[in-house]
Amino acid sequence: MKMLRALxxxxxxxxxxxxxxxxxxxTAAAKGARDWSGIGAMATHKPNRAPKRQSAxxxxxxxxxxxxxxTEAKAPEGFVLSKETQDFRKAMDGQGDKQRMALAKQIAGxxxxxxxxxxxxxxxxxxxxxTLDRVVAMEGKVMDFTPPPMSTATGVPETGTLxxxxxxxxxxxxxxxxxxxxxxxxxxxxxxTVTHEMRHAxxxxxxxxxxxxKIAEGTxxxxxAYGFYQANQVISKVGGEDNLSYGDYSHLNNEYDAFATGNxxxxxxxxxxxxxxxxxxxxxxxxPSGEPYAGLAFIESKVGAAKLxxxxxxxxxxxxxxxxxxxxxx
Length: 330
Hints:
Distance between the termini: 7 Å
Number of strands: 3
Helix content: 40-55%
Strand content: under 5%
Largest sheet: 3 strands, mixed
Radius of gyration: 19 Å
Number of domains: 1
Shape: globular
């Protein structure tokens, strides 16, 4: 992370441009003009296959790594880098960050969990899962959702997947973990992964509440719910998940929010020891204080909304070029 701090100091030198946010709820949304017609598919679709973050020897094909303006323009309401989602980002940065920090502090103050993390490599698979169960229970209470059941799968996926969330007709969903893969990783990656996937459960349940008119218009929850819903409609609008680069995928509204959740919590709880550089872009990498090194709000304040995607890509490239000997990371 020292390398990250140094690179950011040198890379984030952007011309200052004013950036004005729109009202939190648009006029159309305030009148109830929302389309929830795709809600049924959310309860039955299979999890998206996340594009792999590239390594240094394959980073030459940058169209498969960086964010692509043409792709994101096909479904602007589903991506956090578009001007159409400024309201969503403002809601996420406000309410979402408060939830994340509250959870991080609760985990850090739990002697049972912290004791287990302190002896993580020596714990049995059963005890590791029990520790993560305790974290999940905390997340459900702090973020006000019903933690879905966690089941386990065998093996270590070639994709590097440690866990995934899948919606369900019960309105709760489920999280599937790969204990062998988790055991091979480190404690903070396990923490970031589980809190990331449980954030997807929170998102799913919030969308279901909104679609069933259990959330009032004009509220932060409605703004978040509709943003998460729009992210789930992206795959069909762009012609399939294979048309998403890693940058596009990690900046879907729901994925960006989940990366921010897992990465911030890991950074705070580990007091900066966690290495989440392989999880998302530079805009979801955090200091031990929970402050982002270079969050989207900061970048946007320097270049304006219209140049946000381009500026983020340029910053990510500078990070990559400054760290050639490792996998494309921060």
